[in-house]
Amino acid sequence: MNITLEQAETAINAAKTKAKEINTLMNIAVVDAGANLIAFVHMDEAWLGSIDIAQRKAKTARYFNMNTGEIGKLSQPGGSLYNIEHSNGGLITFPGGVCIEDASGNIIGAIGVSGSTVENDHLVAQSGAESVK
Amino acid sequence: MNITLEQAETAINAAKTKAKEINTLMNIAVVDAGANLIAFVHMDEAWLGSIDIAQRKAKTARYFNMNTGEIGKLSQPGGSLYNIEHSNGGLITFPGGVCIEDASGNIIGAIGVSGSTVENDHLVAQSGAESVK
Amino acid sequence: MNITLEQAETAINAAKTKAKEINTLMNIAVVDAGANLIAFVHMDEAWLGSIDIAQRKAKTARYFNMNTGEIGKLSQPGGSLYNIEHSNGGLITFPGGVCIEDASGNIIGAIGVSGSTVENDHLVAQSGAESVK
Amino acid sequence: MNITLEQAETAINAAKTKAKEINTLMNIAVVDAGANLIAFVHMDEAWLGSIDIAQRKAKTARYFNMNTGEIGKLSQPGGSLYNIEHSNGGLITFPGGVCIEDASGNIIGAIGVSGSTVENDHLVAQSGAESVK
């Protein structure tokens, strides 16, 4: 099972709506089950450096089938996955990357959001992911 | 002058409509005046390798303010720009990248399309670019 | 709004003057609003490794519209942006990168300085940025 | 012997003057004897893609102590240096890169120019290089 562009656009629109609701400017990326980029938007005046980070968060979430923030807990100094960020051309392991599941609970892709605090990034990503179920 | 997300989405939607009209499956990317990614879509079942190519075409068009195919004519063996593709982390110089101008003729970004023949790629990119003027 | 070469040269000259005043040898880079390199100088005998760092500091400041040192506070182990340096092909998040604003307060680019202590790097960058306002 | 920043700035100013004289918009880079970037300017509205190319031309000229166009003659299909552009992280081998010599004929650096035809690029680079002797 793989995410469709229609589902990716649903996720992006839901995320964009949530971003506006909480007065943030976000970069939002959706990848498919193969971790390939399916859709992306950069809201006007959002951080340019977050164009790359949003995409890396989406990929990182799908690479390990978990929220990026969960990986970040394990990649700290002394942690079991210390400096895992060096793999795969550069991972981002702080919150804002969330897997997208279909109604049956299959992971069909992931969404990555960057542009505000990590709490806001995660909240917006969650809104996007939930809109697809 | 820089492209807005609304303009980028107009371009992508026009390109998507044209892609469907000619029965192709495209990857479509829009960059701003600074060559940063603003919006992207991958149509279902389009080539995965073209996700990257569409983005490089958009950047290449903006980098030199001309259609990518024009650069490709000059980068052939014996041509004045032979192997220019090695610059900027990798250019794509065959057709499918087109600058986006505003109503006053200012270049505000570029669109890159990849997924079919270069003729079709260019046609779809052109449709996207023209929708913004 | 985007920085001009004349403004970039003003910033670099002001930074160079400050660098000499405090007896340091600096690398100084200015990027535009799109994070593209506009001007650069390497003072004689300044560190060679700082040629790259100065450019990354300028880009990092513009990528997130804040001083690089602010990002570095958040990217420490346990911090909310831990290992953000892996994004965008490699960020530099210690002090020495400062946004450049025009007289109206619009961010039109950024300056990055590297070659001494981070305190000196920041001081020199600040001098450059302020000369443009 | 190594180029100084003062000499590099002399070369860049001479090149800039020549660029204006022939109505072109150039990116101009100077590297030292170690092929490290010493000074760079991007003239307003010059091609963004040439920021990278100007630097690669300067490096390529110094890497092999010859004009970039000379290398390009040898890197064609069937040539003795076919596809040498793949080395050193990406070379540019069409005209516009010229070595800088001091009054005694020692190579102390190189200048790379990009933004117009390769003939104009070479002409402007030559003007810069000659201003240092």
TrEMBL record, chains A, B, C, D:
<dbReference type="InterPro" id="IPR005624">
    <property type="entry name" value="PduO/GlcC-like"/>
</dbReference>
<protein>
    <submittedName>
        <fullName>Uncharacterized conserved protein GlcG, DUF336 family</fullName>
    </submittedName>
</protein>
<dbReference type="InterPro" id="IPR052517">
    <property type="entry name" value="GlcG_carb_metab_protein"/>
</dbReference>
<dbReference type="Pfam" id="PF03928">
    <property type="entry name" value="HbpS-like"/>
</dbReference>
<dbReference type="InterPro" id="IPR038084">
    <property type="entry name" value="PduO/GlcC-like_sf"/>
</dbReference>
